[in-house]
Amino acid sequence: MTSDGSAASAGPNVPVWDPDGALALPRLRGDLAADVCVIGLGGAGLTAVLRLRERGLRVVGLDAGPVAGGAAGRNGGLLLAGTAAPYHRAVRALGRERARALYRRTAREIGAVLEAAPGTGSRPGSLRIAASAEELADGVAQRRAMRADRLPVEPYEGPEGRGLLFPEDGAVDPLRRCRALARAAVREGADLNDRSPVTSVDAPDDRSARVVRTPHGRVRCRQAIVAIDGGLARLLPELAGTVRTVRLQMLATAPTDRPALPRPVYYRYGFEYWRRTPDGRIALGGFRDVGGAGESTDDPTPGDVVQERLTRFLREHLRVEAPVTHRWAASVGFGPGTLPFVGEVRPRVWATGGYDGTGNLIGAVAGRALADRLAGDDPVELRWLGAR
Questions:
Q1: Nearest to 362 by CA among 319, 333, 388
Q2: Which member of 132, 146, 286, 328 has the lowest number of beta carbons within 10 Å of its beta carbon?
Q3: How far apart are CA 249 and CA 76, in angstroms?
Q4: How far is CA 136 from the centre of its chain?
Q5: Strand partners, 46
Q6: Separation of alpha carbons 305 and 287, rounded Å
Q7: pLDDT in tens, 187-202
Q8: What letter does residue 27 receive in the DSSP assignment?
Q9: Contact assessment for residue 76 and residue 172, using Cβ atoms and an 8 Å cutoff
Q10: Burial of 1 from C-beta contacts in 10 A (0-12 / 13-18 / 19+)
Q11: What span, in angstroms and rounded, lies between the C-alpha atoms of 355 and 280?
Q12: 260-289 as b/e: b if 16+ CB within 10 A
């Protein structure tokens, strides 16, 4: 139980998002054939499924749990253009042309996300609020770099603090979004199966296809996309030294009218983030660094140390008195640098993951680009993402 006594009413690791929108999909039983098997039915995987169907390919989609049962449906729902790194740092790491192209491409993806899942989000902008003088100066450097490249950003000072305003960013209910994408994929003829954990992705003796195996069925396919973020290396051990799994934790309150929070907030270099949900709750996440080495885990169960710190921040910094009703966690992937991992891990087996907790947009960009690559194109986004 946390210090405010609310853990008993906060539910067993249940996110605040879309409590009544359950989606019924079959388990995979028996054998299926497809042009492409997509493993992981979150934002990246479902975007890939829809794009593959647009290109006329036969698609089977699999997930170990329900649709978006992992990080895709358990994150804060922030739609932030760019990479996980602030723009000026992305410029240093990637070069100006590439960083600018990725920023503009992910900014366009905000509109695509909201159009593909109507009614699940909006574009109120977002704030980066500084927790220190050093971070405030870092924000000034970010603003200068963005203005030099004519990207939308404004200085900000208001009730949340001082920092930057990104007027075109957005927010979404991540679980409703993914369920909407899954329903659309089924309507378009994709064969989606949940509660079907993949045990292996093998090559049969003739080497002309891949066989994706689950406990009760198989998918024979020409190619596969593994769109798992947290736990990616469990299925593809080749990535064990490239993508690591980290636990991110959140909580949410009962509806409250304070603070107003018209826009989602990123704080302390993104370690903390919060927003108001459409029904008036405050959703808050962060403090993985406070949890230390214990947060480098595949266990997606909320931990006492981080939850205590989240509660204290909610009460002391945000001045929110409403009771905590939800506490949850998710496993996410942290990649090798500024960019996520996108590439061909084995012959005809592609993977995307390691979004550093910011995969709602760049994951969708990667998923669509991989779909186009498997359909025979050479999308420029794969070069921007440094696809292996």
A1: 333
A2: 132
A3: 10
A4: 26
A5: none
A6: 9
A7: 999 999 999 999 999 9
A8: P
A9: no
A10: exposed
A11: 28
A12: ebebbbbbbbbebbbbbbeeebbbbbbbbe
Contact (Cβ atoms closer than 8 angstroms) between residue 181 and residue 50 = yes
Q: How far apart are CA 380 and CA 145, in angstroms?
A: 23
End-to-end CA distance of the chain, in Å? 46
Give the number of other CB atoms < 10 A from CB of residue 197. 16
Strand, helix or coil for residue 278: coil
Q: Rounded to whole angstroms, how far apart are CA atoms 178 and 149?
A: 33
H or E element: which one contains 343?
strand 341-346
Nearest 5°: phi and psi at 79? -110, 90
**330, 329, 373: which is closest to 348 by C-alpha?**
373
The amino acid at residue 73 is G
Quote the pLDDT of residue 11.
Answer: 62
Q: Is the CB of residue 314 less than 8 Å from the CB of residue 327?
A: no
Q: Read off the pTM.
A: 0.95
Residue-wise over 61-79: b if at least 16 C-beta within 10 A, else e? bbbbebbbbbbbbbbbbbb
Residues 6+ apart with CB under 8 A from 244: 233, 296, 333, 334
User: Using an 8 Å Cβ cutoff, are 273 and 76 in contact?
Assistant: yes
Amino acid at 301: T
Q: How are beta strands 265-267 and 126-129 bridged, if at all?
A: parallel
- Mean pLDDT computed over 152-178: 98
Return d(Cα 376, Cα 279) in angstroms, integer: 44
Share of the chain above pLDDT 70, in %: 96
User: Counting every residue, how long is the chain?
Assistant: 388
Task: State residue 22's pLDDT score.
Answer: 80
Q: Which residues pair with 34 in a beta bridge?
A: 221
Q: What token pair was written down for 69? A: 């049962």
